[in-house]
Amino acid sequence: MYRVAVITDAETATGFRLAGVEVREAVSPEQTLEHLQTLLTLDYGLVAVNEDLLKGLDEALDRVMRGRDTPIIVPFPAPKAQLESGENYIARLVKEHIGFYVKLR
Questions:
Q1: Is the dihedral of CA 43, 49, 55, 58 positive or negative?
Q2: For residues 43 and 3, is the Cβ–Cβ distance under 8 A?
Q3: Sequence spans of domains, the chain
Q4: Hey, what CATH class is 3-80 in?
Q5: Is 71 left (phi over 0), alpha (psi -120 to 50) or beta?
C-alpha cells in the first residue's frame, strides 16, 4: 500500500496537516528536490507539490524520476492573494508547457 505526501511552504502546510496528510515543508526548489529524493526511497505513491516549489526543476526531476513509475508527482497551484479564473489558469499552464496560448471556449 502506497502513502501520500505533500511538499509545500509553511503557510499552506498547516491546512494539509489538519486534513491528516503527511507534509514536508520546503522554502526553495532545491529543498523540494531533496525531499523528493528522500520520498523515492520510501513507499510513496503520490506526492503533491506546490507548483512554485517546482520552478526550474524540470531537468533535475527528469533525472531523479527516470525509470520510475512511483511516486506520481502532482503539482498544485500555490495560494495567491488574487486568484485567477480556472480558465485563465488552464490557459497559462498550456502556454507554459507547449509554448502557445490556446483560447478556451
A1: positive
A2: yes
A3: 3-80
A4: alpha beta
A5: beta
Whether 43 and 21 have beta carbons less than 8 Å apart is answered as no
- Output phi, psi for 39, to 5 deg: -65, -25
CA dihedral 97, 38, 60, 78 (to 10 degrees): 30
pTM exceeds 0.70: yes
Q: Which parts of the chain sit beneath pLDDT 50? A: 81
Q: Are strands 3-8 and 22-25 parallel, antiparallel or unpaired?
A: parallel
56 touches 29 (CB < 8 A): yes
pLDDT tens profile 29-41: 999 999 999 998 8
Place of cell 524520476: 65
Beta-ladder partners of 75: 49
